[in-house]
Amino acid sequence: MKLEKVINDDLNKLLEIRTDDDFTIESVYYRGDTLCVSSQVGCPVECAFCASGLNGLKRNLSYEEIINQYNIAVQNGYTISNITFAGIGEPLLNWENVKKAFWFFKKNGLKVSFYTTGFPLKNFKELLTLPHNGISVSIHAVDEEKRKFLIPKSARLENILDILKEHVKNLSNRKRKLYSLAYLLIKDVNDTYNELEKLSKLAKDLGLSVSLLKYNQIENIPFETTSDEDYEKAFLFLRKKGIKVTLSNRYRTRKIGGCGTLMINRLKKEEGGCPSCM
User: Fold this and answer.
1) Rounded Cα–Cα distance for residues 68 and 65 (Å)
2) pLDDT higher than 90, residue 256
3) pLDDT one-digit tens code per residue, 143-178
4) At CA 213, angle to CA 48 and CA 156, rounded to 5?
5) Which domains does the chain have, with CATH numbers?
6) Quick check: 13 and 28 in contact, CB under 8 A?
7) Where are any strands of DSSP class E within 139-272?
8) Which one is catalytic: 36, 47, 259, 277?
9) Average pLDDT over residues 210-234
10) pLDDT at position 77
11) Residue 42 in 3-state DSSP?
């Protein structure tokens, strides 16, 4: 593996890393201390709003390829204290390699967090028991059919939530803060007050916070981002319902490294590249 290119904006640094079999995966360095790593080449979950799965799954990354994203970043002068599995791929679908990389990062004194759709369920259960530093469960819709539309290849939301509820029910308030429900707000898809009301009831039932994410517009994907005004209204609506809500930080609303924007082989059109996203 080698560092192919670094793309910068005023906040993030997107690291294009070429694998030995000529794929280009992406890691993102942000906040001055955090590296977002990929776990797969492409993604099989095929979320309707995400660039990472536009061309499906090519293959899993090996354990060495996962940790080498960190090693390459450190070798190039980046100071890292936090790792987040929120790059290309669903970490639970490459679980043995991801788990091995998790322990490598922990042994090196790094804080490790995850974004996951919760599938497969068996691996989700095991993830919850690890000494992680945070898990955001991507739900994006409370209605089962709508979630199936947005996240075609995942477990039923009901089953994911049953596992999560069983796990957090006896946790202290301090421990519960490590868990959140991730909800990507998409214009005219999942942004009605009725849907937000259902989300608030779910969060309250679980005793968890909501990470309310702002959709990043992506070429060739037919969804629109909400306006800043409507995004704020959704935030305030949930707050008034007594839910602790965090908004997308400024690092996660960028074309470079924002939620849903990572892809494989960005520089190769025939492999699904999107130069305009650079």
Assistant:
1) 5
2) no
3) 999 999 999 999 999 999 999 999 999 999 999 999
4) 50
5) 2-277 (3.20.20.70)
6) yes
7) 179-185, 209-214, 245-247
8) 259
9) 89
10) 96
11) strand
26 among known catalytic residues: yes
List, edge to edge, every strand of the sheet that includes 13-18.
Answer: 2-8, 13-18, 24-30, 34-36, 82-85, 111-116, 135-138, 179-185, 209-214, 245-247
Burial (CB count within 10 angstroms: exposed 0-12, middle 13-18, buried 19+), residue 125: middle
Asked if residues 255 and 26 have their Cβ atoms less than 8 Å apart, the reply is no
Residue 254 confidence (pLDDT) above 80: no
Tell me the two tokens of residue 68.
Answer: 């080498």
Task: Tell me if 59 sits within 8 A of 41, measured CB to CB.
Answer: yes
- Are 230 and 191 in contact by the 8 Å Cβ rule? The answer is yes
Place of tokens 């007050």: 193
d(CA 100, CA 112): 12
Q: Within 10 Å of residue 194's Cβ, how many Cβ atoms? A: 9
CA 201/CA 190 separation, integer angstroms? 15
Got the DSSP string for 54-85?
A: TT-EEEEPPHHHHHHHHHHHHHTT---SEEEE
Name the token pair of 114: 């995850």
Q: Known catalytic residue: 271?
A: no
Max CA distance (Å), the chain: 51
Contacts of 245 (CB under 8 A, 6+ apart): 209, 210, 211, 212, 235, 238, 239
- Of the listed 26, 65, 90, 195, which one is catalytic? 26
CA–CA separation, 50 and 225 (whole Å) = 13
CA distance linking residue 234 with residue 253, whole number of Å: 17
In contact, 100 and 54? CB cutoff 8 Å: no
In one letter, which amino acid is 54? Answer: L
- Find the mean pLDDT for residues 224-236: 93
